[in-house]
Amino acid sequence: MVNSKRWLRHALMPPWCWRVSFPKAVLAEIENAVQLSELQHRGELRFAVENTLAPGKVWRGMSARQRAIEVFSHLRVWDTEENSGVLIYLLLADREVHIVADRGIIKLVSQAEWDAIAEAMQKQFKQGDFLHGSMQGIERITQLLAAYFPPGTRNLNELANKPVIVS
Q1: Which residues have C-beta within 8 Å of that of residue 37, sequence separation ≥ 6?
Q2: 25 pLDDT tier (thresholds 50, 70, 90)
Q3: Can you give the residue ranges of every domain in the chain?
Q4: What are the Cα distances from residue 152, in Å, to 82, 107, 143?
Q5: How confident is the model at residue 1 (pLDDT cuts 50, 70, 90)?
Q6: Backbone φ, ψ for residue 107 (5° rounding)
């Protein structure tokens, strides 16, 4: 069944709304935080923001979680030597954050731990604090990855650190 309120929210949200929450300065801070994070572990982080889903996807009932998995694949976050990629995905129209981890990490860190980080980020975002919420999320993910994937002698940067605005 189609959620008409959700469909309208996606259909009517201006395409520039993400710029209000994530101006250039915030995106630069996130990129820097990802770069610093990856010095502390062998994991790879990607941060993606999507304003809205296409109305057809909303009409067919695609959830933010399903879209996060799709973006994880599209950005090739799974394509790391140690299967240690993590995607932080934010769908602004739904005000939802989802964290998708690759199979090398999901064996070690439960989905409940990822969900707790996502919920803490969402709480900050609902208060309009996108920078602080992003930094907190990246820091908590860094701690988990450092515990399970400590830096080695060979710590390649396999994925771009720059946040992605999905369009």
Answers
A1: 45, 138, 139, 141, 142, 145
A2: very high
A3: 4-9+23-166
A4: 12, 20, 16
A5: low
A6: -70, -25
